[in-house]
Write a structure and sequence with these properties.
351 residues; alpha/beta; Rossmann fold; Dehydroquinate synthase-like, alpha domain; two-stranded antiparallel ribbon; globular; binds nicotinamide-adenine-dinucleotide
Length: 351
């Protein structure tokens, strides 16, 4: 069993398992009540949890971003209150990144902080959302604007979940994996670059290695900088434009799809500054498009997307910050970009 350690406000393990439910039962020992938060659309088989010594409460919430809102959170608070959850009880999120973000924030906000366990079932959830302690919901003013740093006490990754995941969501998760390759681990780029959605699905060793490498990158960054000064910002590579496009698309695009476009945009910004070569920008396009990920966006949308950049969490005061590469595996912060530079880079990714 492989384990990766994360040192945040407390230390915890990301455990790679082939039997998530059995491992989860062990994690519940000693808890009087356990709340399992799952999506109405993707409810995993919870029959093993019937063996729990704890009182089991299963809460089904709307799928994806529809559940990451204040209305659902209020319902969860009511459910926890009615079930008598105390500070020694446990919250578990089993699902994609939207579910683990919501479960984590529910745990963070009830009684000023309950322990929680993340069982990510999507690739994006495994390599990104469940690791790092950022929890939250969306606001009408932007994505993930309401939240807390509240690390899980354990993360259980079982790649068997990926069998039922759609090709679209495998690709969306790969955007985050590929991002980790660009910011810190070129071996990810070599391995990801040798595959497509179809071949990576058929190759469990390759997907396991990609996930473990991406989690290692994230765990190292988070352990060195839990609350996001500069080191952790590197994980936001591709996310400044990505988040703006996500909002503009009204969440029709997957997070990873929007990040994919944002990665190419950030690469264009860096190339225009002479930080990376044109070939390195093309490498972004080649690897991301091999997974069917979008690498362009509508030219006409820029007028509406540009103002949304300021809503991103990387903005400080009136400055918009971008994470850029200064080479493969090295990042810098760009915060003095002019409107002309932002416009020109968008022109290079627009259709
Ligand atoms: N906290 C963080 O640090 C962090 C990092 C990255 C992303 N996120 C958040 O994560 C979310 C994106 O995660 P996501 O891409 O997993 O989206 P998601 O949670 O919306 O899941 C995508 C779809 O896949 C389904 N699904 C999940 N697992 C499945 C499986 N095994 N088989 C079949 N269907 C399955 C879900 O029900 C959903 O319909 C966003 O809300 C994003 O903001 C958070």
């Amino acid at each position: 069993m492989t384990m990766i350690f994360v040192q945040a406000e407390h230390s915890y393990e990301v455990t790679f398992t082939k039997s998530w439910a059995i491992d989860l039962v062990k994690r519940c020992e000693g808890r009087t009540r356990v709340a399992v938060i799952v999506s109405k659309s993707f409810a995993p088989d919870l029959s093993t949890l019937k063996n729990l010594d704890s009182e089991l409460h299963v809460f089904e919430v709307p799928d994806g971003e529809d559940g990451k809102d204040i209305a659902t959170l209020t319902k969860l608070w009511d459910w926890l209150g009615a079930a008598g959850f105390t500070r020694s009880d446990l919250v578990i999120g089993i699902g994609g990144g939207a579910i683990t973000d919501l479960a984590g924030f529910t745990a963070a906000s009830w009684l000023r902080g309950l322990d929680w366990v993340a069982v990510p079932t999507s690739l994006a959830g495994m390599v990104d959302a469940s690791v790092g302690g950022k929890t939250g919901i969306n606001s009408d003013y932007g994505k993930n604007l309401i939240g807390a740093f509240h690390s899980p006490v354990a993360v259980l990754i079982d790649t068997n979940f990926l069998i039922s995941l759609s090709d679209r969501d495998i690709a969306a998760g790969m955007a985050e994996v590929i991002k980790c390759g660009f910011i810190a681990d070129p071996k990810i780029l070599a391995l990801a670059g040798a595959h497509s959605v179809t071949t990576v699905r058929q190759n469990p060793e390759a997907i396991s290695e990609l996930i473990q490498r991406a989690v290692t990158v994230k765990a190292q960054v988070v352990s060195s900088d839990f609350k996001e000064s500069f080191a952790r910002e590197s994980l936001n590579y591709g996310h400044t434009l990505g988040h703006a496009i996500e909002i503009f698309s009204k969440y029709k695009l997957r997070h990873g799809e929007a990040v994919s476009i944002g990665l190419v945009y950030a690469a264009e910004l860096a190339s225009a500054r002479g930080l990376i070569s044109k070939e390195e920008v093309e490498l972004h396009r080649t690897i991301l498009s091999a997974y069917g990920l979008p690498i362009t966006y509508d030219r006409q949308a820029w007028q509406k997307i540009a103002p949304l950049l300021a809503l991103d969490k990387k903005a400080r005061g009136n400055t918009i910050r971008f994470v850029a590469l200064s080479g493969i595996g090295a990042t810098v912060r760009l915060e003095d970009l002019t409107s002309a530079e932002l416009d020109a880079a968008y022109e290079r990714i627009s259709v």
